[in-house]
Amino acid sequence: MRIKLAVTAAAALLISGCSVDSGGTGSSGNAAAGAASPAANCAIATAADPGNSQPADGTPVAENAPKLAQKDTYRVAFSQNANNGAWRIAETQSMQDEAKRLGYQIQVTDAQNNQSKQIQDIRSLIAQKPDALFVAPMTEEIGTVIGEAKSAGIPVFLIDRTVSNAQAKAGTDYVTTIVSDFVQEGKRAAYAMAKATGGTGKVIALEGTTGSSSAVDRKKGFEDALKQCPGLELVATQDADNQRARAQDITESLLQANPDVTAVYAQGDDMAMGAIAAIRAAGKVPGKDILVVSGDGSKEALQSIVDGAMVANVECNPRFGPKAFEVMKQYAAGDEVPTKILNEDRLFDASNAAEFVSQAY
């Protein structure tokens, strides 16, 4: 009998940060000094952090994807969508470090934030016939090339983002996606913002790469939750492509157009740090005049919480290497691998950020 792969807290800890809630869950309080009293019509302003979502009941297992022989060592490939920014660099390093620790050969390509280049990168890697292929998709629209790997008999494991189900089928064209629940991340960010602001104010949002599953889902989670707070008005949303300089420029422009903005939601920490720089350039104090909520859990962001410039951060840790290779080995051993594996992430705020700064990427 094959053993079903369980996504346990112990396994999640292998990602070194995408782990079980640290105790910050439900205990964030008003992270910014002087936060307004909760608005009577905003239930989430006083609600506990909703925490991590759970895998859907009946998640199918990968039965029809290309098989992987069980061996002592492997030659693997990793298609990274962009090896720039602290998060992506940390993810690539984690994959390389874990491959080295296991004694595997790994080839890494960098698509430089260009979807066409990533498609060509993947085709080049397929031609070299690695034992397994890991892909961090730039957008959901690269599913067709994932199917080409299936045709070549190469098992594919998606990490941190997924692809369109219309183009590639989980469990058939690729084995699984190892990912955070981005909708839940956006929801948790909205709860943290409502708590910090008291459920009133004007908000601008900075989004990641247009068309990526992370950007699409975080937007949905944040905006759906914000509907429970009519006093929190989303006055502007713009794609900053996870780039710090771009986020700073956009935030400066949005603040000029909306001088009464009181909060910023940045889907990623590089964008958040750009926004904080823009707030300061506007002569305002981040964490006091304008509250910032972000996601990723970088060392710089957690230190910003400690320093009072950011009020909360929903973790999405980039250290995928240990978990990715663990799942690959379980698949090779014939274990049943679910077609979607959810990471567990923490909420950081003033109550716990200092504790985790040294562990962050």
TrEMBL record:
Family per similarity comment: Belongs to the bacterial solute-binding protein 2 family.
Signal peptide range in chain numbering: 1-20
Protein localization: Cell envelope
Source organism phylogeny: Bacteria, Bacillati, Actinomycetota, Actinomycetes, Micromonosporales
Family annotation (Gene3D superfamilies): 3.40.50.2300
Keywords recorded for this protein, A-Z: Signal
Principal localisation: other
InterPro entries referenced in this protein's UniProt entry, alphabetically: Peripla_BP_I, SBP_2_dom
Domain Periplasmic binding protein, first and last residues per copy: 77-335
The species this protein was found in: Paractinoplanes bogorensis
Domain of life: Bacteria
Protein name: ABC transporter substrate-binding protein
